[in-house]
Amino acid sequence: MFNKKMKPATKGAILISVWMFTFGTFILPYVMQAIGSEDNYFDNFWARVAINIFVWTIFGIYIAYTNNKKKAKKQING
């Protein structure tokens, strides 16, 4: 899945995105239903999956990018 030319930030973005997508799409709805917060999640399940793929990928890339930026600054400043 990961090749040697891939930057660590890119690997991190992919892993974060996959984790957030899995948690937000498949695990969190069951938790929300268990506490009675969300009852109709599975009405438009595939539409939500399509939207969540896009949203969680963007958020994962953003988090990995800002994390990489902070690490680079830390290395420069010592």
Task: Write a concise synopsis of the structure shown.
The chain has 78 residues and is mainly alpha-helical. The protein has helices at 8-34, 45-77.
Question: What does this 3D model show about the protein?
Answer:
With 78 residues, the chain is mainly α. The protein has helices at residues 8-34, 45-77. 77% of the residues lie in helices and 0% in strands. Helix 1 crosses helix 2 (45-77). It is elongated, with a radius of gyration of 16 Å.
Distance between the termini: 33 Å
Average pLDDT level: 76
What is the beta-strand fraction?
under 5%
Please compute the radius of gyration using only Cα atoms: 16 Å
Write down how many β-strands occur, each being a DSSP E stretch of 2 or more residues: 0
Order of helices and strands: HH
Poorly predicted spans? none
Task: Name the features.
78 residues; mainly alpha; 2 helices; 77% helix; 0% strand; elongated
Note the topology.
Blueprint: H1 8-34, H2 45-77
Helix pairs in contact: 1-2
